[in-house]
Structure formats: structure tokens, C-alpha cells
Design a protein that fits this description.
Layout lengths: L1 H11 L18 H15 L2 E5 L5 E5 L10 E6 L14 E3 L7 E4 L4 E3 L15 E3 L8 H19 L8 E6 L13 H4 L3 E7 L4 E3 L4 E10 L15 H11 L15 E9 L3 E10 L2 H26 L4 E9 L3 H4 L4 H12 L5 E2 L7 H7 L6 E3 L11 E3 H18 L7 H8 L1
Parallel strand pairs: 3-8, 3-9, 9-16, 10-15
Antiparallel strand pairs: 1-2, 2-8, 4-7, 5-6, 7-17, 10-16, 11-13, 11-14, 12-13
């Protein structure tokens, strides 16, 4: 396992933070540093057809070692980290034989990773926990996934007695800013389906995710000296506040779970003359998703109607843009690809946790691009912040799941797609 830990640390200590305000792909030049290293690593372990394009998308092949026809499958992860929290100068800490007590991440700043708050820590007593030093994120999202894919391919190459079909792997930039699949060449990838290694706790297996949209609402105000403002001033900041209060109560991320959708106000900036409010809209149910988007426009229209006679112009401008859709629609017709992953976990004594993703993944966009792509755990917890951690044993188990999926896929007759499709209807 030390080999896997060393590989993971070599990846997370390279800064690959993406930038949503950039127009380039990758969105930051520094993502090339890890991308180029990955190309060399893939060649070093013996993969074939290793390529990297001008946008830093990496692909490689492990050829089949069986003489019968086997579907080509793929494994995909992203190498950028979230811009929500610093990914520079990551200094991982390794806690061996975790005792179930508080882990001091940074004594000087009194930053503590405690099971009293993060109760999932207690699932990993006795294991090796890799944490941050309390000043950066860790980058297990999704460098754990990359570590697992590289390690699994290396293991299969070193153990030719394990039979498998042709396997394609793909590493992408900019997933954290929603662009990871934008330039992914599905035809070039050439797999019948794939799995993203981008989930959280051990056992997670997901093939449903939110339908997602982003909304930008601009409020136009009128600035007048406060001493003479009666009936004249429009404070755009107060309009934004009033708009937020019109959203359904209790439908926020912190108050919902499972299949429950939400509105999430994540950014507001303004002054009297103009305020810009940004929020995201999420729902697993397509009809409810459409109604949520309609509500944004409805509230904006009500505001404009209220002020139309007095000011003669729209003072609220709502822009709503779809981001991605629920992959369930594309995965259900080929549900056997989920069944294979579930079987792989069970054979490794891992209890599958099949649940909807309360978020998105490259797999969602890829599924709608013609590459059905469920999501499998990568092992990390508390992504995008200083409390992020990953048990080394979870990385090891995810690596074993990849190997087992490859092995199960190559069993003759394991894939009567027609029959399996009938059983899922």
C-alpha cells in the first residue's frame, strides 16, 4: 500500500486548481504540470496509445489479453482541484493506525479534524488517514481517482493471469468548474461505457445525479442622496434580499437530502446602483427542475411588474442556463454496467452504497454524449476544504474494484446485453 500512498502524495503536491473565470482549456496553465507527469507515468507502467491533446485531455489503452470478444470499457478521473479553496502548497499528513480521536491538523491555528463533528472518521479506526495541514484542501477529489486508475492498470500489467478486455482510461482538466467533459472526444475514447472514479466514501456507487442550472440575476437600482430619497431611490441590494426571500423556505442545501432539490445562493455582490446575485438550481426530477427554473423567471417578472409604472423599465434581469442533466436517463437502458460494479464490490466484501449524487460529475455529461458512465467511490471525505481526508485503505479498495470490474467484464457470456436490458425494464 505504501506504493499507492507515495503515488497519491506525488499527485496532490502538484497545484492544479482550476479557474472559472478563465476562457482557456485547461483553465490554468499549472494543470499542465500534472498532466505531463501523468503522461510519463502511464508510459512508464506500460500502457499503450498514450496521448495528450492541446487541451490537456489524456487517454491511454490497456490492450485485451483474451481471445474472445469483450466490450471495451473505460475509467475516467479529473486532475484539477476546486477553486473554492486553495490547492497550492499542499502538505499531506499521514496518520497511521488512527485511534478514533481528534486529529490536529494545525496546532498553531488550532485547526482540528474531530470525529465529534465529522462522524465518518470513526468508520476508519485502525486505518491510515491522509489529511491536510489545515491550510489547503487535499486534492483527493480527484487525485485519489487518478491514483486508483493508474495503480489498477499497473497491477493488471504486472499480473497477466488476470484476464480482461481492452480498457481505455481518460484524465480530464477543469471538472471542478463544470467543463471536464466539454472537449472529451467520446469517439476517440472508443469505449462502450466507462466509470468515473470520483465518489466519496468507500462503497458508493451512483448512476443518478441532479439536473442542474445556474442563474444570474441582475438588479438595477437608482442612487439618490439619502436625504432626498423618498419615492426616488431604488436600493438594488435590498431588491436582491427581497428576491431571496421569495424563494421557497427550507429548500436550501443545508436543509435537504436524498432526492430533495434546492436553490443555493452562492454569490452576491453589489451596491445601490446594481447588485448581481448568483445561485444554482438542483433537482433529480426533471419536471420539478423545470418548475424551479420557471419560478426564477416568475419572481423576476413580478418584481418588474411591481415597479413598471413608476420607473418604466425592467429592474430585474434573470438569466438561467442549464449545466447538466440526470444521467439516470442514459444509464438505465444499460443498467447491467451498474450491476457489474455492484458485483465487483460484493466480491471484494465491500457493501455497495447505491444512492443519488447530490451534485454532478463528468459522467453525467459523458452519458449524454454517448458514453454511459456511472460513478464509483474514490474514498475521500470533506472535499473542497481544509478538513478533507482520505483513508489509504479506501484508495487501495477502489483500485481493487477497478481490477475486479475488468476481470468480470472478460468472463465469457457475462454480458448478454439484450437479456440484461430486458430485466431492467
Amino acid at each position: 500500500m505504501q506504493h499507492i500512498i507515495d503515488r497519491f502524495i506525488s499527485y496532490v503536491t502538484i497545484d492544479t486548481e482550476s479557474d472559472p473565470n478563465s476562457k482557456t482549456t485547461p483553465s490554468t496553465e499549472k494543470q499542465w504540470n500534472l498532466a505531463n507527469k501523468l503522461v510519463e507515468d502511464l508510459k512508464a507502467i506500460g500502457l499503450q496509445d498514450v496521448t495528450i491533446d492541446d487541451k490537456a485531455y489524456i487517454m491511454a489503452t490497456l490492450p485485451s489479453n483474451v481471445d474472445h470478444e469483450v466490450p471495451t470499457i473505460g475509467f475516467v478521473s479529473h486532475f484539477d482541484t476546486s477553486p473554492d479553496f486553495s490547492g497550492a502548497n499542499v502538505k499531506p499528513q499521514i496518520v497511521e493506525n488512527y485511534d478514533g480521536k481528534d486529529i490536529v491538523l494545525n496546532a498553531e491555528k488550532n485547526i482540528v479534524l474531530s470525529p465529534n463533528y465529522f462522524k465518518d472518521l470513526l468508520l476508519y479506526k485502525g486505518q491510515t488517514i491522509i489529511t491536510t495541514d489545515g491550510t489547503t484542501l487535499l486534492g483527493a477529489d480527484d487525485k485519489a481517482g487518478i491514483t486508483e486508475i493508474v495503480s489498477a492498470m499497473e497491477y493488471l500489467i504486472q499480473h497477466p493471469e488476470i484476464k480482461h478486455g481492452k480498457i481505455r482510461i481518460g484524465f480530464t482538466p477543469d471538472e471542478e468548474i463544470g467543463r471536464g467533459a466539454h472537449h472529451f472526444d467520446v469517439e476517440k475514447f472508443g469505449a462502450q461505457w466507462a466509470y468515473t472514479m470520483d465518489g466519496s466514501q468507500i462503497g458508493e456507487l451512483e448512476y443518478e445525479n441532479f439536473n442542474a442550472a445556474g442563474a444570474k440575476i441582475t438588479f438595477k437600482g437608482k442612487s439618490v442622496h439619502p436625504g432626498y430619497a423618498k419615492g426616488k431611490m431604488i436600493n438594488s441590494m435590498l431588491l436582491a434580499n427581497e428576491f431571496i426571500n421569495e424563494l421557497p423556505k427550507g429548500e436550501t442545501p443545508q436543509e435537504t437530502k436524498g432526492y430533495e432539490g434546492f436553490f443555493h445562493v452562492h454569490h452576491i455582490k453589489g451596491n445601490i446602483e446594481e447588485t448581481v446575485l448568483e445561485l444554482i438550481i438542483r433537482d433529480h426530477n426533471k419536471k420539478k427542475f423545470e418548475k424551479r427554473k420557471e419560478l426564477i423567471h416568475k419572481i423576476a417578472k413580478q418584481f418588474n411588474k411591481k415597479f413598471a409604472k413608476k420607473f418604466g423599465e425592467d429592474i430585474v434581469i434573470a438569466e438561467v442556463k442549464d449545466q447538466y442533466y440526470n444521467m439516470k436517463e442514459k444509464v438505465l437502458p444499460v443498467k447491467h454496467i451498474v450491476d457489474i460494479a455492484e458485483k465487483a464490490m460484493r466480491e471484494l466484501n465491500i457493501k455497495p452504497i447505491i444512492k443519488p449524487i447530490r451534485g454532478g460529475t463528468d459522467g453525467s455529461q459523458l452519458s449524454f454524449m454517448g458514453l454511459p458512465c456511472p460513478n464509483i467511490f474514490a474514498g475521500g471525505h470533506n472535499f473542497h476544504g481544509k478538513y478533507e481526508y482520505v483513508p489509504a485503505e479506501s484508495i487501495q479498495k477502489a483500485t481493487e474494484v477497478i481490477v475486479k470490474i475488468a476481470e468480470l467484464t472478460a468472463i465469457p457470456g457475462a454480458f448478454d446485453v439484450t437479456e440484461k436490458s430486458k430485466r431492467t425494464k
